[in-house]
Amino acid sequence: MSSKTVLLFPGQGSQYMNMHLKLSAKSQKFIKEILDELNLSYVIDLMSTSEESLVPTNISQVAIISTSLGFLKDIADKDLKFGASAGHSLGEYGALVVAGVLSFKDAVRIVAVRGRLMGECAARRGGSMVALLGFDKEMVEDLCNEASRFGICVIANENSNQQIVISGENKAIDWVLENYKNFKIKKAIRLKVEGAFHSPLMEDAAKEFKNFLGSLEFGDFGLPVYKNVDGRPYTDAKTIPDILSKQIISPVRWVTTIENIVNDGFESCVEVGPKNVLSTMLKRWTKLECSALDGE
Question: If we measure between CA atoms, which residue out of 181, 185, 191, 179 comes closest to residue 146?
């Protein structure tokens, strides 16, 4: 790692059973102590129970950020150098820890609230998400416009030039799954999530989350953190409640984020968290040298 390295943190979907056991014994103890202090120690037990036990949003988000921060703890203890950070959706909280804006404990606490609010909102409003592969963006926009006749249907994650995730009400998403081939899109995969994240269906969660974030204090940025809502670095910690609440109902602009990271002169990235979804995807379409701390 060097000052030209960016640390990247994965989002929901990267969880797997026993992922925390990849951490060093020191980091396993570290995250267990944090979860114990926050009365979230049951999440550790669920990580070793079954894949299904990690599907609920309030569980998966805490499990992923805890594991990611365990990997980060190992890096921090080795005093390795890096120049910036970014995270995909909930991964943005790990990126904020790297920059010194959040403590490890506060990041887990905030994500626990975020996951609970999003899970509760999903239970009330319903909805689902689908990953689309093999397209150009105009095809996906046309598909969403047509599907919107049946309910909310929007782009949720712009992950690469060959993968976009859409989010919306169930009738609209069902129509997408029946008709995507008519829009010359090669493949559609329904995601195992509880609701329509990064869409207007999460507005109730975003409002309550903003009120919660407004009660907290944030540190200054020690490093640039590229944010999901526009792919650019934060400029002021005072904007964090607005930006992180908006993130819940806005698309994750991952392509723009990575393009800005490359244009700003960074040469490599290291994925800090379970699996290697981000680094594997980036190897296909960027010139960044990519690696992952977890090879699962």
Answer: 179
- Token pair belonging to 87: 């995270």
Structural contact between residues 287 and 244, judged by C-beta atoms closer than 8 angstroms: no
Instruction: Tell me the average pLDDT across 29-46.
Output: 96
**b/e for 183-206, b at 16 or more Cβ within 10 A?**
bebeebeebebbbbbbbbbbebbb
Q: Which of 60, 89, 128, 199 is catalytic?
A: 89
- Is 198 catalytic? The answer is yes
What's this model's pTM, rounded to 2 decimal places? 0.95
Rounded Cα gap, residues 234 and 155, in angstroms? 23
Give the pLDDT score at 202.
97
Band (22; pLDDT cuts 50, 70, 90): very high
- Looking up tokens 């919660």 gives 212
Strands 128-133 and 187-190: antiparallel
pLDDT tens column, 183-197: 999 999 999 889 999
Separation CA 239–CA 237 (nearest Å) = 5
Cα-trace Rg, the chain: 18
Q: What is the DSSP string of 226-238?
A: E-TTTSSB---GG
Cα dist. 265→2, 58, 84, 261 in Å?
A: 12, 36, 11, 7
CB 63 within 8 A of CB 40: no
- The single residue of 27, 88, 198, 245 carrying the catalytic annotation is 198
Question: Catalytic site residue 89?
Answer: yes
